[in-house]
Amino acid sequence: MKALxxxxxFLVLIFFSRQxxxxxxxxxxxxxxxxxxxxxxxxxxxxxxxxxxxNPAFIRAExxxxxxxxxxxxxxxxxxxxxxxxxxxxxxxxxxxxxxxFIAPAFGISKNINDKWAFGIGAFGVSGLxxxxxxxxxxxxxxxxxxxxxxxxxxxxxYKHGDFYVGANLSILHGKFALAYSLDATNFTxxxxxxxxxxxxxxxxx
Length: 206
Fold this sequence. Notes:
It contains three helices and eight strands. The protein is mainly beta. The chain has a single domain (2-205), classed as Porin (Beta Barrel). The strands form two sheets. Strands 1-4-5-6-7-8 form a six-stranded antiparallel sheet, with helices on one face. The chain has a two-stranded antiparallel ribbon with strand order 2-3. Strand 6 and strand 7 (164-180) form a beta hairpin. The longest helix is centred in the first third of the chain and has 14 residues, at 2-15. The model is unreliable at 9-25 (pLDDT under 50).
């Protein structure tokens, strides 16, 4: 019953995390707060529940059921300098993007099935970037607005044979990208957001 309740909370968090997918930076170091705090380790050294997405061979619960719920809050500072103020409609030398905070969610569960087999599932914000200059038309940046986010879900299993571990997972990666700009003060040009989902798998040993 406890495991079912925890799984229900996990699925609810995944469902309502769509607005938290955007993150800054083209590739985060590590998945999850623990791995990221230690420089991105997790392939050759297990660090917890996020093993399901880095090296599924290390899926293993320290207790009967391990749960990870976390996030990384990023505060990027992106500026554009117009050294030719007066051209391209530019009147100010420097403007700063208003896209100044992004959230990378991290959710995961790992459970030992028996002494040899273990199961895990994780959902992590893995990559993304974005800028927002929609209030800076007068600086020659055409009110540019972009938003890229990548979100990965991976269920996996591991098998232990003595001191040797092997594992596999199914990787489901969802990406979304939006681009808009304005060549005049009244009209925006942009196709809206586009998204796609890809599938693959990872094998691991350790």
